Amino acid sequence: MKLSRRMKRTIFSWLVLSPLVVAVLFPFAVMFITAIKPATEVLQPTWWPSAPQWQNFITMWQATNFGAALWNSVYVAVLSTLLSLVVSIPAAYALSRFRFVGKGFVQQFLLVSQMLSPIVLVIGLFRLLVALKLLDSLNAVVFVYATFNIAFSVWMLQSYFSTIPKDLEEAAWMEGATPWQALRKVFLPLALPAMTVTAIFSFINAWNEFVIALTMLRNQGSYTLPIQVFSLVAGRYTVEWHHVMAAAFAATIPVAIVFAWLQRYLVRGLALGAVK
Amino acid sequence: MNRSIFTNPYVLIAPAFLLAAFIILWPLSQIGEISISNVNRFGQLKGFAGLENFAAVVGDPQFLAAAWRTVIWTLGIVAGTILLSVPVALVLNEDFHGRGIARIIVMLPWAVSLTMTAIVWRWALSGESGMLNSALKGLGLVDQNIQWLAAAGTAFPMQIAIGILVSIPFTTTIFLGGLSSIPDDLYEAARLEGASSWQIFFSITLPLLRPFINIAVVMNTIGVFNSFPIIWVTTQGGPANSTDILVTYLYKLGFSFGKLGEASALSLMMFALLLFFTIIYVRLAMRGERA
Questions:
Q1: Which residue of B has its CA nearest to A245?
Q2: Which of A28, A111, A242, B170 has the smallest number of CB atoms closer than 10 Å to its CB?
Q3: pLDDT digits 0-9 by tens, B168-191
Q4: Does A33 touch chain B (CB under 8 A)?
């Protein structure tokens, strides 16, 4: 039998990738299989459950206080994404369209703020929230997440915006449109894909964030999903692993699906940003 | 030109800049102030302390151990990630059956929060009921359960391996962007000249990928240096602080030991180091721009 070139390449490629594929899928398998094990079998080191317990996902909802944490995560992720977009779009527009005194400084400031992770600033951020009496406030966390997303958002948006020709807005001005009309009718519709992609990455960042939430949210009522699930594991003698894994699975899969659908835009966006 | 707030760059930039300045510069100045003050565990400042806090941090053997571990942690993850991501990106850049699925699988760890990944691994690595042990036993690779997280000797390499696994997606993405920027006619010309695959890789692909590798090294170094959840969730720096890196040690100093002055001093030292990495990044990025 003679294999086509493409077939040979397929076999070779999957062979090269196979160890990585196994390593990537292993935690998903662990998560899923533990989630559907009966409570009595969780601690037995077998791979398969004797009978899959789909109702674990339902009992988990109550046992892990999943609903409240889900709502907190959605609230924080949606609002911080909107806030960071609302301030980043005009900034990215200005950086991609205008030359002005201080532009270099703004770009450097954004770059440094991108390099700073919240962990290095956590003591100062904690004091800031204490001083403002905003400890345990989801809204304060929204502001912190939005801020730490600005650098990335401006960077992504600016690299896309620079690919939209300036002539289009200028033509609209010639036709007698005000700058706002030109922006709204001409520029923003063209920039919509970039804004969507940026929004989704801001959302995922906020959805997954750990250190700030761990430090600032002290009361179980305000926990986001990562903190809620972590609190079921840390410092406990008995951990209900099937519930923890069911919760981790339910918190992970929706975001993973959206991400899988979007990752090719990311390849393009990051490539644009890196070579610009 | 029309006069409008929509054509005034300062007005457009002000909201982003003011928000970032308030939430980044104010805490930074606080950290600066605390780091040179005597401070009690409730955060009240009790006068000027000079460089005492810095001296206390540098003189602490735990700091030295955590700093050394951070070097291993960062070098291990960054080197491992780059070495694995180059072949992965090369494979994913070629056309083959199921490439779309392969790309999604390789990118998948990026979509999952580090916290959740670390929680799953904490469970998978558990000694008695962990599924890694049952998988390894099932394959006949080990015949006794390994207590992965009970000693730094096994826990820390595992944490580094997890770190590599979650860093590959970002790095591969950068490399794929780099590979797509290499013009096809270069490869065709090389093949016409009779170059072997190895020659093509070492004399065309690798040199042209160089700027992307540099950027990936610096960005991963910054990300890994700052990475907190993997270690905090799997071992919390334990047992007996034997898997602490600087970020987890910093968090303990500030929020478990109540040594706010030392924690702030350490923050500033780490900030200076990050600034240094950033300058390297800017240099590399600017060199790329001129070329």
A1: B120
A2: A111
A3: 998 998 898 889 888 888 888 988
A4: yes
> Looking at beta carbons, which residues of chain A come within 8 Å of B104?
260, 263
CATH class label, B54-290:
mainly alpha
User: Where does the pLDDT of residue A185 fall: very low under 50, low under 70, confident under 90, or very high at 90 and above?
Assistant: confident
Write down the number of H helices and E strands in chain B: 14, 2
Six-digit token pair at A27? Answer: 């935690």
Task: Show the 3-state SS of B27-78.
Answer: HHHHHHHHHCEEECCCCCEEEECCCHHHHHHHHCHHHHHHHHHHHHHHHHHH
Which token pair is B271? 């900030």
CA gap A149, A62 in Å, rounded: 33
User: Which chain A residues are within 8 Å of B251, Cβ to Cβ?
Assistant: 119, 122, 211
As for the ipTM of the complex, it is 0.87
Specify the CATH number for A80-275; select among 3.40.50.300, 3.40.190.10, 3.20.20.140, 1.10.3720.10: 1.10.3720.10
Q: Does residue B222 belong to the interface with chain A, where contact is any CB pair within 8 Å?
A: yes
For chain A, domain boundaries: 80-275
The predicted model scores a pTM of 0.89
**A 209-238 residues with CB < 8 A to B:** 209-211, 215, 226-227, 229-230, 233-234
* Residues of chain A with C-beta less than 8 angstroms from the C-beta of B122: 233
